[in-house]
Amino acid sequence: MDQFAIGVDIGGTRTKLGLVNIKTGEVLYEIVHATEKESEGPFLQQIYRSIHEFGMLLADAKASLDGIGFGIPGFVDEHGVVDTTYGFLRFMENYPLKSKIEADTGIACRLDNDARVVALGEALFGSGRNHSRVLALTLGTGLGVGFVVNGIFPDPLPFSHMSGHMSIGDKGERCYCGKTGCLEAQVSSAAIFNAKHLTRLASSGGALPDPQQVFTLARDGNPFAAEIVNGIIEALQKGIHNFINIYAPDIIVIGGGMSRSLKEHIKELNQINYLSPYRNYTCEVRISDLQEQAGILGAAALFSNRNNSNSNNEKD
Ligand SMILES: [Zn+2]
To answer: Peptide bond before 158: cis, by omega within 30 degrees of 0?
Structure first.
């Protein structure tokens, strides 16, 4: 039987809500609005309006809703309380989102970290579908890491998505976490938007770039852009080497804002010497086909049979 849930992906500028058939991985209907970062009231109102709209669609189809799942850009605990989003959503500090939504709407709610949710989407409905151990890297303004084994999270919340901060040496800009040498700071757009790089790029004729432009400039022979891109690829190779030795994934799916630019470097990221350290072990690195849909699908899939990040106080 078909099963329906709402998946919510809270992005830097836009929040996307999708009505998902979690049996088939189909996004049936999508609502996008500007992300409300400042206060609780408008944030919840937007969510409730969408729930209402999706609910009417389902009622027309005589189907029911299992619940609403969120990918949260920050720390979530096992009870569905958002610990912090590092100031991204100002009101979400020690914020009981799950119980609030359940009390207000009577609809079951589950939350997880956004990078883990993306991994779940990729594992169930994306490039990871026919793989057992799926590692998903979300590369944008940061580096999100999520790991799924046989369709479920092997590690409990709240701290199991931090491996982007693994140290790969003492080079690079200071990470926002306060340390130097974090993988995240050397492969995300932070590696491009640091002051030193921007100054050098500007002086070499490049306009202040978005990450994709830096990759284009590099391809066109701009030496500073090429240096930045080489640095990113080299750091990412080191990171992949480490991830392989820690997680032994069958597939590494790279998504997020920077992933499309990495497509032309996929060969370098699949270099056999570090992907195959052991006999009979293979791992493939791929760029996400689902791209932005992975977040919505994964958030809704928190309601698929075996996934339940916040098991306490469950209403259903
Ligand atoms: Zn860090």
So the answer is: yes
Q: What is the pLDDT of residue 170?
A: 78
Distance 192 CA to ligand 1 centre (A): 16
Distance separating alpha carbons of residues 124 and 120, to the nearest angstrom: 6
Ligand 1 centroid – CA 38 distance (Å):
25
Which one is the CATH code of 128-289: 3.40.50.1980, 3.30.420.40, 3.40.50.2300, 3.40.50.620?
A: 3.30.420.40
Domains 4-118+294-303 and 128-289 alike in fold = yes
What residue ranges do the domains of the chain occupy? 4-118+294-303, 128-289
Dist. CA 148 → ligand 1 center (Å): 23
Model pLDDT, residue 314 = 42
CA of 20 to the centre of ligand 1 (A): 34
Q: What is the pTM of this model?
A: 0.92
How far does residue 6's CA lie from ligand 1's centre (Å)? 32
Q: How far is the CA of 183 from the centre of ligand 1 (A)?
A: 7
Determine the distance separating the centroid of ligand 1 and the alpha carbon of 43, expressed in angstroms: 29
Ligand 1 centroid from CA 168, angstroms: 11
Ligand 1 centroid–CA 72 distance in Å is: 19
Q: Is 271 helix (H, G, I), strand (E, B) or coil?
A: coil
* Domain covering 4-118+294-303: architecture: 2-Layer Sandwich (3.30)
**Consecutive 10-residue averages of pLDDT for the chain (316 residues):** 94 92 95 94 96 93 93 93 91 96 97 96 96 96 94 85 89 84 91 71 64 88 91 94 93 95 94 77 94 96 78 44
Which tokens is 214 given? 């830096």
> E-strand spans in the chain?
4-10, 14-21, 26-34, 65-72, 75-76, 82-84, 109-113, 133-139, 143-149, 251-255, 284-287
Cα-to-centroid distance, 184 and ligand 1 (Å): 6
- In one-letter notation, the amino acid at residue 91 is F
